[in-house]
Amino acid sequence: MRRRLLQSLVPMVIVLAIVAAVPLANFIATGASRTLFLSRSNDADWFATMAEGPLQSGDIASLRELAVRYHQLYNTPVFVVDVDSRVIATSRSGVNIAEPDLATALSSTLAGRLPAEPPAMWPWKSGEMVVARPVVNNGRVLGAAVLRVPTERARDQVQNGLLLLLAGLIVAIVAVVIGIVRPVSRWVLRPINDLDNATHQVTRGALDTRVSTDGRAPELRRLGDSFNSMALSLHQARQREREFVADASHQLRTPLTSARIHIEGLSRLSPTARFALSDIDRLGRIVQRLSRLAGSDRPGDAEGNEEPLDLAQAIKERLVGWKAVYAADDLELIIGEMVPGGVASELEVDDILDVLLDNASKYGAPPVEVSVLRDGTEVVLSVRDHGLGLGSRDLKKVGERFWRSAHHREMPGTGLGLAIVRSEAARVGGRVVARPPIGGGLVIEVRVPLIDDYDL
Question: Key word Oxidoreductase present in the record (predicted)?
Answer without folding.
Answer: no
